[in-house]
Design a protein that fits this description.
heterodimer, A: FAD/NAD(P)-binding domain, FAD/NAD(P)-binding domain, four-stranded parallel beta sheet, 29% strand, elongated, B: alpha+beta, five-stranded mixed beta sheet, 3 helices, binds flavin-adenine dinucleotide, binds FE2/S2 (inorganic) cluster
Chain lengths: 342, 105
């Protein structure tokens, strides 16, 4: 059990555009939010998959990039001081006897909330697994997709695969402690900071690391421990001794633990009503790309609308006795005070 | 116009291609195993196919963006392409592609 327990009105699972905007709608109704995301920053698909691509169908913005939209949403919700918890995945959500919900993350924290808003979009971002047969058997034991503890790589024969910033950064960081380090990439061009690429090339010249042009095709080993990595190369196949493999191929979206929370699903999407966007469990709402109802459109715009309606229903759960009067932000001084503009 | 798609299990399918559609869209519309996570925005590489060698020159060249994205899959071959970056046209009638393992859902 963890010693860390956070009690709040609402936990929002997912810091994508829809999760972020829900903080605004909930904030206008005085509900305090904690937002949890497995990524290390907000924005969901907008920030991860297309930060620099223009979006043309956000009302009032003829054009805005994924990152600009995220930045603007953060500015818009700033008055409500939501607390953000990044780099953690919500593993479980359970209704307790007193009607509140208990959420546990993979960082072993517990959140107690009166309302849960699932804004998990296309699912949780997880590392792309290279298409190498049997790789699952080695994962977490000798094949890793992230470096959590540097010490796991000390005095090991490390093979890093990839040509982006993560691959280059970890090549530079692990070189001093690894017994040997080989960087493998399919071509001689890198999509990483030029300074890291130059430093890597220096280390190759100094004979401190190896660089090979190729792709991983097969792994040898037993009981979860690899001992050789086979590479397919233009020059022919090669097998190199290795005790640790770190493939850095970016992220892909998987539904993840959401599937196990006992909610009614339709083809991996959470079924909701269209009045409140509540799931089959009262008090748990699902908004944005993750939900399903007749006519659903997976658009940011739709998620924003769903957030507004959800917030009204969430308010009734958190404060059942309070009368909520519908107000406009343009004319209500009360709302403007909350936003810090009146 | 037709395209011939071999899926990850080695089964060949003849699909009706539509002028102006992306090859990815045709494959997805047909229900074959293609993730196409980003919907064709050249952002995910989960629409990876191998173009039959005799068609490779006809489908045009990879863009820099596409090249960078192909770095994020582990099964690139000389004839690899992202199928969302190939637009169907009369010249591609009869195109043959094979779905890569990394395109699977
Ligand atoms: C290339 C591309 C272009 C697009 N263009 C447009 C466009 O022009 N217009 C438009 O309206 N839409 C567009 N979309 C779709 C749009 O991005 C989505 O509709 C939108 O991102 C959905 O927002 P969301 O907040 O519901 O989910 P997401 O953006 O998917 O965010 C969900 C977040 O939840 C997190 N999460 C999931 N599960 C967990 C868990 N268990 N624990 C912790 N965190 C979790 C994820 O890490 C993620 O950050 C585009 C999408 C792509 C990929
Ligand atoms: S569908 Fe995402 S790159 Fe082609």
């Amino acid at each position: 059990m963890s010693g860390n327990e956070i009690v709040t009105d609402v936990v929002v699972i997912g810091g994508g555009p829809v999760g972020l905007f829900s903080v605004f709608e909930l904030g206008l109704l005085d509900l305090k939010c904690h937002v949890i995301d497995i990524l290390d920053r907000p924005g969901g698909q907008c920030a991860e998959l297309y930060p620099e691509k223009p979006i043309y169908d956000i009302p009032g913005f003829p054009v805005v990039t994924g990152q600009e939209l995220t930045d603007n949403l953060l500015k818009q919700i700033a008055p409500f001081n939501a607390e953000f918890h990044y780099n953690r995945m919500v593993n479980s959500v359970e209704k307790q006897a007193d009607g509140t919900f208990r959420l546990v993350t993979d960082a072993d924290e517990t959140f107690i909330a009166k309302v849960v808003v699932i804004a998990a979009g296309g699912g949780s971002f997880q590392p792309k697994r290279p298409p190498v047969e049997g790789i699952e058997a080695f994962e977490g034991k000798s094949v890793y997709y992230a470096v959590r503890k540097m010490d796991d790589f000390r005095d090991q024969d490390v093979v890093i695969v990839g040509g982006g910033d993560s691959a280059l950064d970890w090549t530079l960081n692990l070189q001093p402690i690894a017994r040997s380090l080989t960087l493998v990439h399919r071509r001689d061009a890198f999509k990483a900071a030029p300074a890291s690429v130059n430093r890597m090339k220096e280390l190759v010249m100094e004979g401190k690391i190896n660089f090979l042009l190729g792709q991983v095709s097969k792994l040898d080993g037993e009981n979860g421990q690899i001992n050789h990595v086979h590479l397919t190369m233009d020059a022919g196949d090669l097998s190199i001794p290795a005790t640790r493999l770190l493939p850095f191929f970016g992220l892909t979206m998987k539904l993840g633990p959401v599937a196990d929370w006992g909610l009614d699903l339709n083809d991996n999407l959470i079924v909701v009503d269209t009045e409140k966007f509540e799931t089959s469990v009262p008090g748990i709402f699902a908004i944005g790309d993750i939900n399903h109802y007749p006519g659903k459109l997976k658009l940011i715009l739709s998620g924003f609308h769903e957030a507004a309606l959800m917030a009204q229903a969430a308010k009734k759960i958190v404060s059942p006795d309070e009368r909520v009067i519908f107000q406009y932000t343009t004319s209500s001084t009360k709302l403007q005070k909350k936003l810090g503009v009146a | 116009m037709k395209i011939h798609v071999t899926d990850q299990a080695g089964v060949e399918h003849e699909l009706e291609g539509l002028e102006g559609w992306r090859v990815m869209e045709v494959i997805r519309d047909w229900g074959l195993n293609i993730k196409a996570e980003c919907g064709g925005a050249c952002s995910c590489a989960t629409c990876h196919v191998y173009v039959a060698p005799e068609w490779f020159d006809k489908v045009g060249a990879r863009s820099d963006d596409e090249e960078d994205l192909l770095d994020t899959v582990g099964d690139v071959k000389p004839t690899s392409r992202l199928s969302c970056q190939i637009l169907m046209s009369d010249e591609l009638d009869g195109l043959k592609v094979t779905l890569a393992a990394s395109a699977a859902q």
